[in-house]
């Protein structure tokens, strides 16, 4: 689908809104839903015989990137990670005892922080501990995020040897002034060296992460970055809109406010990015991903089988996610559960032999129905009434009578087309899919103040 930029409509619909990495979003999590409920839901999940996805959070970084919205711990002093890893191993045992051993892992991801903060011996030991507790499918997607500044050739050889087959490189921008301003300096030759090393090891997929909306970025400066990244020829790109949330991440205030691109400039940057990458042969996936036409993500979107979770877009719908480590989030079919965010609280819980979940959310039937609708809109750019009715035994027009009435304004503005018991996102609405999804968000209706990032 060719994206159509309509500045008037983008301004009209630009408002705070969830990113819908889950529905309901994490803002609905509550501390009355804790470890006991998690254990109950883990045991219940075994009856579904679904495959598993594992996420491990490695929160350590050697220095702070000023744009960062992740939960990280900054330390130049190596060794701080040792007791943390020991506790993650304990958490593995605490959780895995409730999982049917017949269930296999189809996806695994190490995120951060900086997973390659770990040395080669720690990477090997960590992966051995995971394999002691879980079995993997033969074609499992096993991915890791790396910071190119600290990725050695030896590390890359090790992550391939232990079983990783996908790598995501955090680049963000290649402009020297932008890099200096956000405190993340890695010249193009550094990134190219890492990509070359990954190719030598024959990784199945290489992804590059970029961010637009950072200080001193312009259309021309970011165009150069995109052109340089295209030359690196990654299999996928994730290009995120910078989320300015200083009420959550006060360090973001250290960036010069006057240097941020205007809303108009930011929109022009996005327009340029989409055009350049599509011209280079990449397919635009969801809100912020691009992939080569033969990539699993592109194929899944064409077939209407794309899905979304806290790790981003995925081809494997129905997989249940278990999160390990401080701040990690698990996503079961009917429940979301988050670990303690601080190391102190995480450590105290694990040391006491308790699963370190401190909050969560149990989905009711309405949540599950609405999640299906919202994720179809976000991932597959449309919605089929018949499929939803068959899965949940509802009459779509009756169940969503209010929402269908509200969609009429979006249809008259050309964002969507409602016909033949289907909703289809149109080129004008391609950048505003969050706004379309928000119509079906029952929790959003109850909020007086929306503390989310902007939808565009």
List the helices and strands and how they pair.
Layout: H1 7-13, H2 35-45, E1 52-58, E2 60-61, E3 73-74, H3 81-96, E4 105-112, H4 120-133, E5 136-146, H5 153-162, E6 166-172, H6 176-182, H7 188-200, E7 205-212, H8 219-232, E8 236-241, H9 263-279, E9 283-285, E10 289-291, H10 296-302, E11 307-309, E12 312-314, E13 320-324, E14 329-332, E15 335-339, H11 343-351, E16 357-362, H12 365-380, E17 382-384, H13 385-392, H14 396-399, H15 401-412, E18 416-419, E19 422-425, H16 433-438
Parallel strand pairs: 1-4, 1-13, 2-3, 4-5, 5-6, 6-7, 7-8
Antiparallel strand pairs: 8-10, 9-10, 11-12, 14-15, 15-16, 17-19, 18-19
Helix pairs in contact: 3-4, 3-11, 4-5, 8-9
- Please write the CATH class name of the largest domain: Alpha Beta
The radius of gyration is 22 Å
Number of helices: 16
**Residue share in helix:** 25-40%
Please mark out the parts with pLDDT under 50 across 5 or more consecutive residues, or reply none: none
Structural class: alpha/beta
Give structural notes:
There is one protein chain. With 456 residues, the chain is an alpha/beta fold. The protein has helices at 7-13, 35-45, 81-96, 120-133, 153-162, 176-182, 188-200, 219-232, 263-279, 296-302, 343-351, 365-380, 385-392, 396-399, 401-412, 433-438; strands at 52-58, 60-61, 73-74, 105-112, 136-146, 166-172, 205-212, 236-241, 283-285, 289-291, 307-309, 312-314, 320-324, 329-332, 335-339, 357-362, 382-384, 416-419, 422-425. It folds into two domains: 1-24 and 364-456, Arc Repressor Mutant, subunit A (Orthogonal Bundle); 27-324, pyruvate-formate lyase- activating enzyme (Alpha-Beta Horseshoe). The protein has a nine-stranded mixed β-sheet, sandwiched between helices. Strands 14-15-16 form a three-stranded antiparallel β-sheet, with helices on one face. It has a three-stranded antiparallel β-sheet with strand order 17-19-18. β7, α8 (219-232) and β8 (236-241) form a beta-alpha-beta unit.
């Amino acid at each position: 689908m060719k994206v159509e930029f309509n500045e008037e409509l983008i301004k009209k619909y630009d408002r705070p809104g969830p990113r819908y990495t889950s529905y309901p979003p994490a803002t609905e999590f509550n501390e009355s839903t804790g470890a006991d409920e998690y254990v109950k839901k883990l045991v219940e999940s075994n009856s579904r015989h679904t495959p598993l996805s594992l996420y491990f959070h490695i929160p350590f970084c050697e220095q702070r990137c000023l744009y960062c919205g992740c939960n990280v711990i900054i330390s130049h002093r190596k060794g701080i990670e040792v007791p943390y890893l020991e506790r993650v191993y304990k958490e593995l045992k605490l959780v895995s005892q409730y999982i049917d051993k017949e269930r296999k892992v189809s996806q695994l991801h190490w995120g951060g922080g900086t997973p390659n903060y770990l040395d080669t011996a720690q990477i090997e030991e960590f992966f051995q501990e995971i394999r002691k507790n879980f079995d993997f499918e033969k074609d499992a997607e096993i991915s890791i995020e790396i910071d190119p500044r600290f990725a050695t050739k030896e590390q890359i050889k090790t992550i391939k040897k232990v079983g990783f087959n996908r790598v995501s490189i955090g680049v963000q921008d290649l402009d020297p002034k932008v890099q200096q301003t956000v405190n993340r300096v890695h010249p193009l030759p550094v990134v190219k060296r890492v990509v070359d090393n990954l190719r030598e090891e024959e990784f199945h997929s290489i992804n590059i992460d970029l961010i637009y909306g950072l200080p001193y970025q312009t259309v021309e400066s970011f165009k150069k970055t995109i052109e340089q990244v295209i030359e690196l020829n990654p299999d996928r790109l994730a290009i995120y809109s910078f989320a300015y949330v200083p009420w959550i991440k006060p360090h973001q205030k250290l960036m010069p406010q006057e240097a941020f691109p205007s809303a108009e400039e930011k929109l022009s940057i996005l327009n340029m990015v989409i055009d350049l990458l599509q011209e280079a042969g990449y397919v635009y996936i969801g809100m912020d991903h691009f992939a080569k036409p033969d990539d699993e993500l592109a194929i899944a979107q064409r077939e209407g089988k794309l899905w979304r979770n806290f790790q981003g877009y995925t081809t494997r719908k129905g997989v249940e996610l278990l999160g390990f480590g401080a701040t990690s989030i698990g996503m079961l079919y009917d429940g979301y559960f988050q670990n303690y965010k601080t190391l102190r609280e995480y450590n105290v819980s694990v040391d006491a032999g308790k699963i370190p979940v401190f909050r969560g959310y149990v989905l009711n039937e309405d949540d599950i129905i609405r999640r299906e609708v919202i994720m179809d809109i976000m991932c597959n750019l449309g919605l089929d009434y018949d499929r939803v009715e068959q899965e949940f035994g509802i009459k779509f027009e009756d169940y969503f009578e209010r929402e269908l009435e509200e969609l009429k304004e979006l249809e008259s503005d050309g964002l969507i087309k409602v016909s033949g018991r289907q909703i289809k996102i149109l080129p004008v609405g391609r950048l505003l899919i969050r706004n379309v999804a928000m119509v079906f968000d029952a929790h959003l209706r109850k909020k007086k103040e929306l503390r989310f990032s902007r939808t565009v």
